[in-house]
Amino acid sequence: MPEATTIAFKHCTILHPETGSLEAGKCIVVENGRISAIADDSAAPEKAIDAKGLTVMPGMIDCHVHVIASDMDLGRNALLPNVLASFRSIPILRRMIERGFTTVRDAGGADYSLAQATETGLITGPRIFPSGRALSQTGGHGDFRARNDIIEPCACSQKVGAIARVVDGVDNVRRAVREEIQKGATQIKIMASGGVASPNDPIHFLGYSEDEIIAIVEEASNAGTYVMAHAYTPQAIQRAIKCGVRTIEHGNLLDEATARIMVEHGAFLVPTTVTYDALFNDGPRFGFPPALMPKIEAVRSAGIRALSIAHEAGVEMAFGSDLLGKTHDQQANEFKIRADILGNLEAIRSATTVAAKVLQREQELGVVKEGAYADLLFIDGNPLDDISVLLNQGSKLKAIMKNGEWVKNELENQPAQDSATRA
């Protein structure tokens, strides 16, 4: 058994997103990957690490990523050899955690094995809540075949680079849910409307019949989890919510009536506004299919308006980025978009307390409290006053801790790997 390690920090100014308050003069004690105690500085041990002048906040959570999407053309990404697709996800994951995202929910593509790789420290990256492969009807948002491709009789082979699988019919979707959960999915993703990055499905298309969605929700519920749905239009959002879907991804065309329905059903919205800017500005030079560019403008400006509509209605919104290929480095820019509309605190909450609710881990993630995971960011600056300290590839993050272990440590006079006292 490895010897237990205790690390203590003194002179901490803790940002609590749940209250929006700053608590100064605190000592944080980390033991066995968890926060074991928070006390006044007077209780700090002699060898405590000095965090004076820094803001300490919980590690951030991105609730909509595709870590295997190393190519902006998702159809081409799905054709990558499996080993290459896996290897290309490694720098994507490393850079996510270097930006302060210690947890991510993958919305299609990442599986149990990739989650285990980051959990065990085999590769450096955030904690992953994988969806496995998202479920799409034939011709839906997850079907990237050209119109002249032969329709395969089954999805018998596993392509690591594919974010989705094509499955139709009530009995078949039930089995697909069971298979994804058996393979380690922590939630199920469905394509409930057309989308931007797929070739044959206009955005107004509806994905799956209501009977199919109800069956998917039932199977997920039977396994103790929930369904997240890609959906843009009010009609797609409403029917998904009424069929029991718990989180709506994107939701760019949300209207006031639909927002009220989301509140009534306790559903979450995961906007991903940054990806439309990235696709619009950088898609052509980074390989996004030119034929799909006209789809982007239809949802880009509407997504900004949807943020205001959801906020005014009281819809809880979690942080999402949904970036592809070489635009992954724009992940934290979502904060700037949200802060300009909702304010800094709400932007921070979306990536901490609200995101933790989505993951059903509100006592363990997105908070700095006793018993929570020791996912901690030590920031040169206060994001309540200046959201830019969370941008720029984590340049203002002096130290990053996940599960009580250092990912980055630039705290003064402290060794990078072990400044701990031994319990």
What does this structure look like?
It is a single chain. By secondary structure, this protein is an alpha/beta fold. It has helices at 74-77, 82-98, 112-119, 170-182, 210-222, 234-242, 256-265, 273-282, 293-313, 333-342, 344-350, 353-358; strands at 5-16, 21-31, 34-40, 49-50, 55-58, 60-65, 101-106, 127-129, 134-136, 164-166, 188-191, 227-231, 247-250, 268-270, 316-317, 376-379, 397-402, 405-409, 421-422. Strand 11, helix 5 (210-222) and strand 12 form a beta-alpha-beta unit. Mean pLDDT is 93; it is low at 415-423.
Number of helices: 12
Q: Roughly what is the average pLDDT, rounded to an integer?
A: 93
Overall, the morphology is globular
- The helix fraction, in percent, is 25-40%
Structural class call reads alpha/beta
Reported for the largest beta sheet, the result is: 9 strands, mixed
Quaternary structure type: single chain
Question: What's the total number of strands?
Answer: 19
Strand content of the residues, in percent? Answer: 15-25%
Q: Unreliable runs, pLDDT <50, ≥5 residues?
A: 415-423
Integer-rounded radius of gyration:
21 Å
Distance between the termini: 14 Å
Provide the descriptors you would attach to this structure in a database record.
423 residues; alpha/beta; nine-stranded mixed beta sheet; 12 helices; 19 strands; 22% strand; globular; disordered C terminus
